[in-house]
C-alpha cells in the first residue's frame, strides 16, 4: 500500500539518524526543561537566552521552530483595569523622570505603582517599588484594601533593604496614595525627591506597568486564587524566587536583575 519494498524498509531501519536530527532531539528536551522550570512563562527569546547562558549555541529561530514542533509557547499579554485615582486635590509633584528609564547606578531612581490580583475571596492589592537601574523589585506590600499605608509599606521595605543616599528620585503616577501627607512626609524624611507622571499617561511609568503586565501574564494563567493568602504566597515566590533572581529581562540583555546589578558593581 505504501509502495515500499521489504528490503527498502529494513535498509531505512538500519540507517543511522543524521546529526541534525539527533541535535534537534536533544535541543527539544533542553527547551522543554527550561520551559517547565519557568512554569511555562518563557517564550523563544528567553529560552534562547537561558540556553546561551548554559553554553548551548543555537539560533533563536531554531529555538522557536522546535518550540512550535513541541507545541510550547510563552504566556501572552492580557488586559487589566487600572487602579489609579488621580481625581483629588492633593499636591502633585513635577515629572522629574521624563521617561528617562535608563539609569546608570542603583538607588538613583525608584518607581512605584499599585495593582490588584483577583481571588475567590476578594481582591488582593499589590504595591511595588522597582529600581530603574536593574528593574529589580526592591520593595513590595499587599493588602485587601488600597490605603495610603500600602505603598508606604513598600517604600519602607525598599529603604530598609537598600539604604538609598539623599537625592533619590521617587517616581509614581498621580494616585491619591502617593500624594498623601504621610507618603510625602516619608519621602522628606528620606531626603528623596518626588516625581509624578502626567495625568492619564501610563507611558510615563512604563517600567512598572510592564512589570505588572509580566506578573499577571506569567503568574495567573487564566486562574483565580482561592483566597488572599494563596495569592500572597504566589506573589512572594514570583518576586523573591523567580523575578529578581531567575527571570531574564530583555532590557538588561537577558540578564536577571540581580545578575545585572552584580556585573554593574564589578565593572
Write a structural description:
It contains ten helices and five strands; from the N terminus they run ααααβββαβααβααα. The chain has 267 residues and is of the alpha/beta class. A five-stranded mixed sheet has the order 3-2-1-4-5, with helices on both faces. The radius of gyration is 23 Å and the shape is elongated.
Net shape: elongated
Order of helices and strands: HHHHEEEHEHHEHHH
| Strand adjacency order, main sheet | 3-2-1-4-5
Roughly what percent helix? 40-55%
Described by strand count, sense and barrel closure, the largest sheet is: 5 strands, mixed
Overall pLDDT score: 85
Number of strands: 5
Radius of gyration: 23 Å
Distance between the termini: 68 Å
Query: What percent strand?
Result: 5-15%
Q: Given the structure, what is the number of helices? A: 10
- Which structural class do the helices and strands define? alpha/beta
Low-confidence segments = 78-88
Amino acid at each position: 500500500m505504501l509502495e515500499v519494498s521489504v528490503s527498502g524498509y529494513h535498509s531505512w531501519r538500519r540507517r543511522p539518524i543524521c546529526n541534525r536530527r539527533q541535535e534537534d532531539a536533544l535541543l527539544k528536551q533542553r527547551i522543554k526543561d527550561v520551559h517547565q522550570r519557568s512554569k511555562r512563562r518563557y517564550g523563544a527569546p528567553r529560552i534562547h537566552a537561558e540556553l546561551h547562558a548554559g553554553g548551548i549555541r543555537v539560533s533563536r529561530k531554531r529555538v522557536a521552530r522546535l518550540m512550535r514542533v513541541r507545541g510550547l509557547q510563552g504566556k501572552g499579554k492580557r488586559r487589566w483595569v487600572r487602579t489609579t485615582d488621580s481625581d483629588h486635590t492633593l499636591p502633585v509633584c513635577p515629572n522629574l523622570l521624563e521617561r528617562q528609564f535608563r539609569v546608570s547606578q542603583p538607588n538613583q531612581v525608584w518607581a512605584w505603582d499599585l495593582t490588584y490580583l483577583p481571588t475567590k475571596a476578594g481582591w488582593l492589592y499589590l504595591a511595588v517599588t522597582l529600581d530603574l537601574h536593574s528593574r529589580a523589585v526592591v520593595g513590595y506590600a499587599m493588602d485587601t484594601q488600597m490605603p495610603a499605608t500600602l505603598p508606604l509599606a513598600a517604600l519602607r521595605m525598599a529603604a530598609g533593604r537598600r539604604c538609598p543616599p539623599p537625592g533619590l528620585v521617587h517616581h509614581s503616577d498621580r494616585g491619591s496614595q502617593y500624594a498623601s501627607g504621610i507618603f510625602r512626609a516619608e519621602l522628606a524624611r528620606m531626603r528623596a525627591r518626588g516625581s509624578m507622571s502626567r495625568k492619564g499617561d501610563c507611558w510615563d511609568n512604563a517600567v512598572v506597568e510592564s512589570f505588572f503586565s509580566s506578573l499577571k501574564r506569567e503568574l495567573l494563567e487564566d486562574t483565580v486564587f482561592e483566597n488572599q493568602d494563596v495569592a500572597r504566597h504566589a506573589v512572594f515566590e514570583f518576586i523573591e524566587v523567580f523575578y529578581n533572581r531567575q527571570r531574564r529581562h530583555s532590557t538588561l540583555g537577558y540578564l536577571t536583575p540581580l545578575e545585572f546589578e552584580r556585573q554593574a558593581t564589578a565593572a
